[in-house]
Amino acid sequence: MFEALREVVETLEIPPTGDALRETWRLVDQLTARAREATAEFDALDGPATEGALSTLSWLKHHTGMDDTVAGRHLKAGRRLRHWQITATAARSGELSGSQVEVICAQVPTRAVERWAEHEPLMVPTLVGGDVAQTRLAMGRWRQVIDGVDDEKPPAERNDLYLSVLPDGGQRIDGNLDHKTGAVVGDAIRAAMRPDLDGEPERTPARRRADALGDICALYLAHQNTPATARQRPSAHVVIDWDALTGMARPGSSHWLDGTPISNAAIAQVLCDANIHRVIVSGASAILDYGRGTKAVPTNLWTVIALRDRHCRFPGCDMPIPRCDAHHVNHWLHGGPTNPTNIVLLCERHHTLIHLPGYEMKLLPDATVEITLPNGRTLTSHPPPLTRAGPGP
Ligand SMILES: [Zn+2]
Ligand SMILES: [Zn+2]
Could you say which of 32, 206, 313, 333 has the lowest number of CB atoms within 10 Å? Predict the structure, then answer.
Protein backbone atom coordinates (compact mmCIF):
# COMPACT_ATOMS: atom_id res chain seq x y z
CA MET A 1 0.00 0.00 0.00
CA PHE A 2 2.78 2.42 0.91
CA GLU A 3 4.59 1.55 -2.32
CA ALA A 4 1.59 2.73 -4.32
CA LEU A 5 1.12 5.85 -2.18
CA ARG A 6 4.81 6.71 -2.40
CA GLU A 7 4.71 6.37 -6.16
CA VAL A 8 1.71 8.66 -6.41
CA VAL A 9 3.35 11.26 -4.13
CA GLU A 10 6.68 11.10 -5.91
CA THR A 11 5.25 11.41 -9.38
CA LEU A 12 2.61 13.94 -8.43
CA GLU A 13 2.68 17.18 -10.39
CA ILE A 14 0.99 20.00 -8.51
CA PRO A 15 0.06 22.80 -10.89
CA PRO A 16 0.54 26.22 -9.26
CA THR A 17 -3.17 27.04 -9.38
CA GLY A 18 -5.66 27.82 -6.65
CA ASP A 19 -7.78 24.76 -7.41
CA ALA A 20 -4.84 22.35 -7.35
CA LEU A 21 -3.47 23.81 -4.13
CA ARG A 22 -6.83 23.76 -2.35
CA GLU A 23 -7.16 20.09 -3.27
CA THR A 24 -3.55 19.30 -2.28
CA TRP A 25 -3.76 20.88 1.15
CA ARG A 26 -7.07 19.18 1.81
CA LEU A 27 -5.46 15.81 1.01
CA VAL A 28 -2.49 16.65 3.25
CA ASP A 29 -4.94 17.38 6.10
CA GLN A 30 -6.83 14.13 5.42
CA LEU A 31 -3.61 12.11 5.51
CA THR A 32 -2.49 13.96 8.65
CA ALA A 33 -5.75 12.99 10.36
CA ARG A 34 -5.16 9.32 9.53
CA ALA A 35 -1.53 9.49 10.70
CA ARG A 36 -2.60 11.12 13.98
CA GLU A 37 -5.16 8.40 14.71
CA ALA A 38 -2.72 5.60 13.86
CA THR A 39 -0.06 7.20 16.06
CA ALA A 40 -2.50 7.34 18.98
CA GLU A 41 -3.32 3.69 18.43
CA PHE A 42 0.38 2.80 18.35
CA ASP A 43 0.61 4.73 21.64
CA ALA A 44 -2.37 2.88 23.16
CA LEU A 45 -0.83 -0.49 22.20
CA ASP A 46 2.48 0.50 23.87
CA GLY A 47 4.19 0.24 20.51
CA PRO A 48 6.89 2.80 21.29
CA ALA A 49 7.90 0.82 24.42
CA THR A 50 8.38 -2.36 22.38
CA GLU A 51 10.83 -0.38 20.24
CA GLY A 52 12.66 0.76 23.36
CA ALA A 53 11.32 4.33 23.45
CA LEU A 54 10.50 5.85 26.83
CA SER A 55 7.42 7.63 25.48
CA THR A 56 5.45 8.05 22.28
CA LEU A 57 6.60 11.66 22.18
CA SER A 58 10.27 10.67 22.25
CA TRP A 59 9.58 7.93 19.69
CA LEU A 60 8.02 10.52 17.33
CA LYS A 61 10.89 12.94 17.79
CA HIS A 62 13.52 10.28 17.21
CA HIS A 63 11.92 8.48 14.26
CA THR A 64 10.24 11.31 12.37
CA GLY A 65 12.42 14.31 13.13
CA MET A 66 9.53 16.31 14.60
CA ASP A 67 10.22 18.84 17.31
CA ASP A 68 8.53 18.72 20.72
CA THR A 69 5.71 21.10 19.85
CA VAL A 70 4.70 19.44 16.60
CA ALA A 71 4.96 15.91 18.01
CA GLY A 72 2.92 16.94 21.06
CA ARG A 73 0.23 18.52 18.89
CA HIS A 74 -0.13 15.44 16.65
CA LEU A 75 -0.21 13.04 19.60
CA LYS A 76 -2.76 15.10 21.51
CA ALA A 77 -4.99 15.36 18.43
CA GLY A 78 -4.67 11.62 17.74
CA ARG A 79 -5.56 10.64 21.31
CA ARG A 80 -8.58 12.93 21.26
CA LEU A 81 -9.80 11.77 17.84
CA ARG A 82 -9.91 8.20 19.17
CA HIS A 83 -12.69 9.35 21.52
CA TRP A 84 -14.50 11.55 19.04
CA GLN A 85 -16.08 9.60 16.22
CA ILE A 86 -17.75 12.49 14.41
CA THR A 87 -14.83 14.89 14.69
CA ALA A 88 -12.52 12.12 13.49
CA THR A 89 -14.74 11.32 10.49
CA ALA A 90 -14.88 15.00 9.50
CA ALA A 91 -11.08 15.24 9.83
CA ARG A 92 -10.54 12.10 7.74
CA SER A 93 -12.85 13.32 4.99
CA GLY A 94 -11.24 16.76 4.95
CA GLU A 95 -14.45 18.52 6.02
CA LEU A 96 -12.53 19.87 9.00
CA SER A 97 -9.03 21.17 8.26
CA GLY A 98 -6.06 20.03 10.34
CA SER A 99 -5.90 23.48 11.92
CA GLN A 100 -9.58 23.37 12.87
CA VAL A 101 -8.98 19.99 14.55
CA GLU A 102 -6.11 21.53 16.51
CA VAL A 103 -8.33 24.40 17.66
CA ILE A 104 -10.96 21.90 18.84
CA CYS A 105 -8.33 19.85 20.72
CA ALA A 106 -6.88 22.97 22.31
CA GLN A 107 -10.29 24.19 23.49
CA VAL A 108 -11.48 20.91 25.00
CA PRO A 109 -9.85 20.46 28.43
CA THR A 110 -8.91 16.91 29.46
CA ARG A 111 -11.80 16.76 31.93
CA ALA A 112 -14.28 17.58 29.12
CA VAL A 113 -13.17 15.02 26.51
CA GLU A 114 -16.31 12.91 27.13
CA ARG A 115 -18.47 16.03 27.16
CA TRP A 116 -17.26 16.92 23.66
CA ALA A 117 -18.10 13.37 22.54
CA GLU A 118 -21.70 14.07 23.66
CA HIS A 119 -21.84 17.45 21.94
CA GLU A 120 -19.96 16.77 18.71
CA PRO A 121 -23.01 15.55 16.74
CA LEU A 122 -24.49 19.02 17.19
CA MET A 123 -21.31 21.08 17.06
CA VAL A 124 -19.22 19.58 14.25
CA PRO A 125 -21.72 20.32 11.44
CA THR A 126 -21.65 24.02 12.46
CA LEU A 127 -17.85 24.08 12.22
CA VAL A 128 -17.61 22.44 8.78
CA GLY A 129 -16.83 25.03 6.10
CA GLY A 130 -15.76 27.64 8.64
CA ASP A 131 -12.29 29.08 8.97
CA VAL A 132 -9.95 28.83 11.95
CA ALA A 133 -11.10 32.14 13.47
CA GLN A 134 -14.76 31.09 13.35
CA THR A 135 -13.87 27.70 14.82
CA ARG A 136 -11.96 29.36 17.65
CA LEU A 137 -14.93 31.64 18.35
CA ALA A 138 -17.46 28.79 18.38
CA MET A 139 -15.21 26.60 20.54
CA GLY A 140 -14.59 29.48 22.93
CA ARG A 141 -18.36 29.85 23.40
CA TRP A 142 -18.72 26.12 23.91
CA ARG A 143 -15.92 26.23 26.49
CA GLN A 144 -17.68 29.04 28.36
CA VAL A 145 -20.85 26.96 28.59
CA ILE A 146 -18.90 23.89 29.74
CA ASP A 147 -16.98 25.87 32.36
CA GLY A 148 -20.25 27.18 33.74
CA VAL A 149 -21.75 23.70 33.93
CA ASP A 150 -18.76 21.86 35.44
CA ASP A 151 -18.52 22.82 39.09
CA GLU A 152 -16.10 20.07 40.01
CA LYS A 153 -12.96 21.64 38.66
CA PRO A 154 -9.65 19.98 39.47
CA PRO A 155 -7.43 22.23 41.63
CA ALA A 156 -5.00 22.82 38.77
CA GLU A 157 -7.70 24.62 36.82
CA ARG A 158 -9.22 26.55 39.72
CA ASN A 159 -8.94 30.30 39.87
CA ASP A 160 -10.45 32.20 42.76
CA LEU A 161 -10.01 35.67 44.11
CA TYR A 162 -11.58 37.33 47.14
CA LEU A 163 -11.71 41.04 47.81
CA SER A 164 -12.72 41.84 51.41
CA VAL A 165 -13.33 45.35 52.65
CA LEU A 166 -11.40 46.12 55.86
CA PRO A 167 -12.70 48.28 58.73
CA ASP A 168 -10.46 51.18 57.68
CA GLY A 169 -11.91 51.15 54.14
CA GLY A 170 -8.95 49.32 52.62
CA GLN A 171 -9.22 45.92 50.93
CA ARG A 172 -7.65 42.55 51.47
CA ILE A 173 -6.93 40.29 48.50
CA ASP A 174 -6.77 36.50 48.85
CA GLY A 175 -6.93 33.84 46.22
CA ASN A 176 -5.43 31.03 44.18
CA LEU A 177 -4.34 31.18 40.58
CA ASP A 178 -3.68 28.28 38.25
CA HIS A 179 -0.37 28.06 36.47
CA LYS A 180 -1.33 29.99 33.36
CA THR A 181 -3.20 32.81 35.08
CA GLY A 182 -0.52 33.07 37.75
CA ALA A 183 2.19 33.46 35.13
CA VAL A 184 0.28 36.25 33.36
CA VAL A 185 -0.47 38.10 36.61
CA GLY A 186 3.10 37.70 37.88
CA ASP A 187 4.64 38.87 34.60
CA ALA A 188 2.33 41.88 34.41
CA ILE A 189 3.06 42.94 38.00
CA ARG A 190 6.80 42.55 37.54
CA ALA A 191 6.64 44.54 34.31
CA ALA A 192 4.63 47.31 35.98
CA MET A 193 6.84 47.59 39.10
CA ARG A 194 8.65 50.91 39.10
CA PRO A 195 11.83 51.57 41.05
CA ASP A 196 11.79 54.33 43.61
CA LEU A 197 12.87 57.52 41.95
CA ASP A 198 15.40 59.86 43.43
CA GLY A 199 13.68 61.84 46.17
CA GLU A 200 10.80 59.35 46.63
CA PRO A 201 10.35 57.60 49.98
CA GLU A 202 11.73 54.05 49.81
CA ARG A 203 9.08 51.31 49.34
CA THR A 204 9.26 47.62 50.25
CA PRO A 205 8.95 45.09 47.36
CA ALA A 206 5.47 44.18 48.67
CA ARG A 207 4.43 47.81 48.51
CA ARG A 208 5.81 48.14 44.97
CA ARG A 209 3.85 45.04 43.87
CA ALA A 210 0.65 46.49 45.30
CA ASP A 211 1.28 49.83 43.58
CA ALA A 212 1.97 48.00 40.31
CA LEU A 213 -1.34 46.11 40.57
CA GLY A 214 -3.13 49.43 41.09
CA ASP A 215 -1.42 50.89 38.01
CA ILE A 216 -2.38 47.89 35.88
CA CYS A 217 -6.02 48.12 36.94
CA ALA A 218 -6.14 51.87 36.32
CA LEU A 219 -4.70 51.32 32.84
CA TYR A 220 -7.34 48.68 32.15
CA LEU A 221 -10.16 50.97 33.30
CA ALA A 222 -8.85 53.75 31.09
CA HIS A 223 -9.05 51.44 28.07
CA GLN A 224 -12.00 49.20 28.84
CA ASN A 225 -14.39 51.07 26.56
CA THR A 226 -12.14 50.44 23.59
CA PRO A 227 -14.44 48.40 21.30
CA ALA A 228 -13.30 45.30 19.41
CA THR A 229 -13.31 47.35 16.25
CA ALA A 230 -10.90 49.95 17.66
CA ARG A 231 -7.81 51.06 15.86
CA GLN A 232 -4.53 50.63 17.66
CA ARG A 233 -2.01 52.60 15.73
CA PRO A 234 0.95 54.74 16.52
CA SER A 235 0.91 58.33 15.32
CA ALA A 236 3.27 59.60 12.68
CA HIS A 237 4.01 63.19 11.88
CA VAL A 238 4.54 64.39 8.36
CA VAL A 239 5.26 67.88 7.16
CA ILE A 240 3.51 68.28 3.82
CA ASP A 241 4.16 70.86 1.20
CA TRP A 242 0.62 71.42 -0.02
CA ASP A 243 1.72 72.76 -3.38
CA ALA A 244 3.88 69.68 -3.96
CA LEU A 245 0.99 67.39 -3.09
CA THR A 246 -1.50 69.13 -5.35
CA GLY A 247 1.00 69.07 -8.18
CA MET A 248 1.74 72.76 -8.20
CA ALA A 249 5.36 72.41 -7.17
CA ARG A 250 8.21 69.96 -7.51
CA PRO A 251 7.78 66.68 -5.63
CA GLY A 252 10.10 65.76 -2.80
CA SER A 253 9.71 68.81 -0.62
CA SER A 254 7.57 66.98 2.00
CA HIS A 255 9.22 65.14 4.89
CA TRP A 256 8.74 63.25 8.16
CA LEU A 257 9.17 65.31 11.30
CA ASP A 258 12.80 64.17 11.59
CA GLY A 259 13.54 65.51 8.10
CA THR A 260 13.47 62.19 6.19
CA PRO A 261 11.92 62.87 2.74
CA ILE A 262 8.58 61.19 2.00
CA SER A 263 7.17 60.31 -1.43
CA ASN A 264 3.81 61.57 -2.65
CA ALA A 265 2.51 57.95 -2.74
CA ALA A 266 3.42 57.55 0.93
CA ILE A 267 1.79 60.89 1.79
CA ALA A 268 -1.41 59.85 0.02
CA GLN A 269 -1.34 56.63 2.08
CA VAL A 270 -0.85 58.51 5.36
CA LEU A 271 -3.60 61.00 4.48
CA CYS A 272 -6.08 58.18 3.68
CA ASP A 273 -6.62 57.57 7.37
CA ALA A 274 -4.94 60.18 9.49
CA ASN A 275 -5.60 62.61 12.28
CA ILE A 276 -4.83 65.84 10.54
CA HIS A 277 -3.61 69.00 12.24
CA ARG A 278 -3.26 72.18 10.30
CA VAL A 279 -0.05 74.01 11.12
CA ILE A 280 0.62 77.21 9.29
CA VAL A 281 4.22 78.25 9.28
CA SER A 282 6.01 81.37 8.29
CA GLY A 283 9.43 80.78 6.86
CA ALA A 284 11.27 77.68 8.10
CA SER A 285 10.27 77.56 11.75
CA ALA A 286 7.84 80.19 13.02
CA ILE A 287 4.44 78.60 13.73
CA LEU A 288 1.61 81.06 13.10
CA ASP A 289 -1.40 78.79 13.76
CA TYR A 290 -2.10 75.26 14.98
CA GLY A 291 -5.54 73.82 14.09
CA ARG A 292 -7.67 71.25 15.95
CA GLY A 293 -7.13 67.59 15.00
CA THR A 294 -9.55 66.29 12.35
CA LYS A 295 -9.85 62.61 11.54
CA ALA A 296 -9.83 61.76 7.83
CA VAL A 297 -12.12 58.83 8.77
CA PRO A 298 -14.36 59.62 11.78
CA THR A 299 -14.64 56.94 14.49
CA ASN A 300 -18.29 56.07 13.77
CA LEU A 301 -17.56 55.55 10.10
CA TRP A 302 -14.50 53.47 10.96
CA THR A 303 -16.69 51.22 13.11
CA VAL A 304 -19.17 50.69 10.26
CA ILE A 305 -16.36 49.76 7.83
CA ALA A 306 -14.67 47.55 10.43
CA LEU A 307 -17.91 45.65 11.05
CA ARG A 308 -18.41 45.15 7.32
CA ASP A 309 -14.84 44.21 6.37
CA ARG A 310 -13.65 42.45 9.58
CA HIS A 311 -10.06 42.27 8.30
CA CYS A 312 -7.80 43.52 5.50
CA ARG A 313 -9.73 43.29 2.21
CA PHE A 314 -6.74 42.51 0.03
CA PRO A 315 -7.74 39.15 -1.47
CA GLY A 316 -6.41 36.36 0.75
CA CYS A 317 -5.26 38.61 3.61
CA ASP A 318 -6.91 38.24 7.02
CA MET A 319 -4.94 40.79 9.04
CA PRO A 320 -7.34 41.74 11.88
CA ILE A 321 -9.05 45.12 12.35
CA PRO A 322 -6.65 46.68 14.86
CA ARG A 323 -3.81 46.27 12.35
CA CYS A 324 -5.72 47.88 9.45
CA ASP A 325 -6.00 51.37 7.94
CA ALA A 326 -9.07 52.81 6.26
CA HIS A 327 -8.20 53.29 2.59
CA HIS A 328 -10.07 55.75 0.38
CA VAL A 329 -10.49 53.93 -2.95
CA ASN A 330 -10.85 57.30 -4.65
CA HIS A 331 -8.67 59.59 -2.54
CA TRP A 332 -10.36 62.48 -0.76
CA LEU A 333 -7.56 64.67 -2.09
CA HIS A 334 -9.13 64.06 -5.51
CA GLY A 335 -12.70 64.53 -4.32
CA GLY A 336 -13.44 60.93 -3.25
CA PRO A 337 -16.22 60.79 -0.62
CA THR A 338 -15.56 59.70 2.97
CA ASN A 339 -18.33 57.11 3.24
CA PRO A 340 -18.66 53.30 3.16
CA THR A 341 -18.97 53.21 -0.64
CA ASN A 342 -15.44 54.54 -0.97
CA ILE A 343 -13.53 53.11 2.03
CA VAL A 344 -12.08 49.64 2.70
CA LEU A 345 -9.83 48.17 5.37
CA LEU A 346 -6.28 47.38 4.31
CA CYS A 347 -3.38 46.24 6.46
CA GLU A 348 -0.22 48.35 6.48
CA ARG A 349 1.53 46.16 3.90
CA HIS A 350 -1.36 46.06 1.45
CA HIS A 351 -2.19 49.73 1.99
CA THR A 352 1.36 50.61 0.97
CA LEU A 353 1.06 48.32 -2.04
CA ILE A 354 -2.24 49.71 -3.30
CA HIS A 355 -0.89 53.27 -3.37
CA LEU A 356 1.97 52.25 -5.66
CA PRO A 357 1.66 53.10 -9.36
CA GLY A 358 0.07 50.33 -11.44
CA TYR A 359 -2.38 49.07 -8.81
CA GLU A 360 -6.06 49.75 -9.40
CA MET A 361 -8.85 49.16 -6.89
CA LYS A 362 -12.62 49.09 -7.25
CA LEU A 363 -15.22 48.80 -4.50
CA LEU A 364 -18.47 47.47 -5.97
CA PRO A 365 -21.90 48.32 -4.51
CA ASP A 366 -22.09 44.88 -2.79
CA ALA A 367 -18.73 45.64 -1.07
CA THR A 368 -16.85 43.25 -3.36
CA VAL A 369 -13.28 44.49 -3.84
CA GLU A 370 -11.60 44.17 -7.23
CA ILE A 371 -7.89 44.77 -7.48
CA THR A 372 -6.09 45.00 -10.79
CA LEU A 373 -2.39 44.23 -10.52
CA PRO A 374 0.28 45.99 -12.60
CA ASN A 375 0.38 42.88 -14.85
CA GLY A 376 -3.32 43.34 -15.67
CA ARG A 377 -4.59 40.41 -13.60
CA THR A 378 -7.68 41.09 -11.47
CA LEU A 379 -8.20 39.69 -7.98
CA THR A 380 -11.52 39.69 -6.16
CA SER A 381 -12.39 39.69 -2.46
CA HIS A 382 -15.96 39.32 -1.26
CA PRO A 383 -17.00 40.84 2.07
CA PRO A 384 -17.18 38.26 4.90
CA PRO A 385 -20.70 37.19 5.96
CA LEU A 386 -22.02 39.42 8.75
CA THR A 387 -22.67 36.62 11.23
CA ARG A 388 -22.31 32.92 11.23
CA ALA A 389 -25.21 31.36 13.04
CA GLY A 390 -25.03 27.90 14.53
CA PRO A 391 -26.82 25.98 17.29
CA GLY A 392 -25.18 26.04 20.71
CA PRO A 393 -23.97 22.89 22.43
ZN1 LIG B 1 -5.09 54.57 1.10
ZN1 LIG C 1 -3.52 42.80 4.07
Answer: 206
